Amino acid sequence: MNDVESTSITDLSTPALEKPIETSGLGQWMSVFAVALGAFAFVTTEYLPVGILPQIASELGVTDGTAGLMVTIPGIVAAISAPTVMIGAGKVNRRHLLILLAVLLVASNLISAVAPNLLTMLLGRGLLGVALGGFWAIAIAAAGRLVTRDKAAKATAIIFAGITFATVLGVPFGTFISTLFSWRASFLATAALALIALAAQMMTLPSLAANESLQVKTLLRYLGKNSTQRSILLMGLIIAAHFASYTYIAPFLVQRAGFSASGITLTLLGFGVLGMLANFLVSASVTRHLQLSLAGAVLLMIASLVSLPWVVDSGAGVIAAVLVWGVAYGAIPLALSTWMQLTSPQLPEASSAMLVTTFQIAIASGSLLGGMIVDGYGIEPTLFFGAVLGGLGLVAMATFGLGHDRLINKLQG
């Protein structure tokens, strides 16, 4: 994990919680890796349907667009649960909450694995949303308490590395398992992964008592800022642009580009690997030129989305466009995370809660609108729709003016 991300995220973990737990060095790091494994399991489960969506849709007897609700529903529920858990957790021990949320993750995967119809599937995915939003709301704040204060940045970086590896491996992993067995086996595999994470947390997490939780008035004060509102709009548009198209990338590769299951697995793996590399390489640029870095990444994504329908007859062209898209999206979450944290360094828990909420709402709305377009007009139009949303995100960014120092003043003013 890069220095920018670890430093900025660490700032979210200090205000409302007690001093770090005093345990042995080995015990501290074992608990950190246990939470990181939980992060990997959560994000893998969230993105799992993307690579196996056509198979699920076929067996459950629904359209690809309707099957996209498997991405939409957990996003909506997680958007609600993130601030709700942060506000409602009160003085409940964070260890108990993290373990409970891991149990819900296991249950979600098991329900999805045996789902006989779409309704049952969406019930399992909704349960994922509850666990997902709550996990990030608690894990971000608890990360810095698992080790001594001087090691908090490193601990937070390790936990968030779980996201990176899940982004790289999660979707290709699910696709690969489904080609060997079935899509149901993919959910069983993620259930096993979640169970391992649960066991690791039960064995290693120390008591994480809390003194207070995020207050409603604090969250409302943060949301009342004009810079916060515009930043939320900016983030929502860009993330929705990605997921309006990415949710249906597997149907596009199968139906329009004629890719095999193994071809999809390798292409999505390449998407993830290049995205991970971009996340690391762009860190210095994000620190010094946040607007330029984010704008460049969004423009790359738009170019990829627009080009895909035109290169559909060329396998190499499709792969190249998807890989460029991977580079673009690899840089986007880091830039947006840094942007949102700059909106209110003095209210880190509020910005943390809204970061999770906005991200999940954008995932849900993007996949939902994309699914409606896929069912009504075909897959190519949703790629153009994603490009339009990305363009609107650039317009929202332009309202902050130009210049790094000016941007920071406007975000924090």
How is the secondary structure organized here?
Blueprint: H1 3-10, H2 25-60, H3 64-67, H4 69-88, H5 94-114, H6 118-142, H7 152-180, H8 183-204, H9 216-223, H10 226-246, H11 249-256, H12 261-281, H13 283-288, H14 290-307, H15 315-342, H16 348-377, H17 379-398, H18 404-412
Helix pairs in contact: 1-7, 1-15, 2-6, 2-7, 2-8, 4-6, 4-16, 5-6, 5-8, 6-16, 7-8, 7-12, 10-15, 10-16, 10-17, 12-15, 14-15, 14-17, 16-17
The top level CATH class name: Mainly Alpha
The fraction of residues assigned to DSSP E strands is under 5%
Structure class:
mainly alpha
What is the CATH H-level superfamily?
MFS general substrate transporter like domains
Give the radius of gyration.
Answer: 20 Å
| Percent helix | over 70%
Number of domains: 1
The average pLDDT value, as a whole number, equals: 80
Any idea what the shape is?
globular
In CATH, the topology is named Growth Hormone, Chain: A
Low-confidence stretches: 1-24
Largest sheet: none
N-to-C order of helices and strands: HHHHHHHHHHHHHHHHHH
Structural overview:
It is a single chain. This protein has one domain (3-412): Growth Hormone, Chain: A (Up-down Bundle), CATH 1.20.1250.20. Mean pLDDT is 80; it is low at 1-24. Helix content is 81%, strand content 0%. It has 413 residues and is mainly α. It is globular and about 55 Å long.
Quick recap:
The chain is an all-alpha fold and 413 residues long. The chain contains 18 helices and no strands.
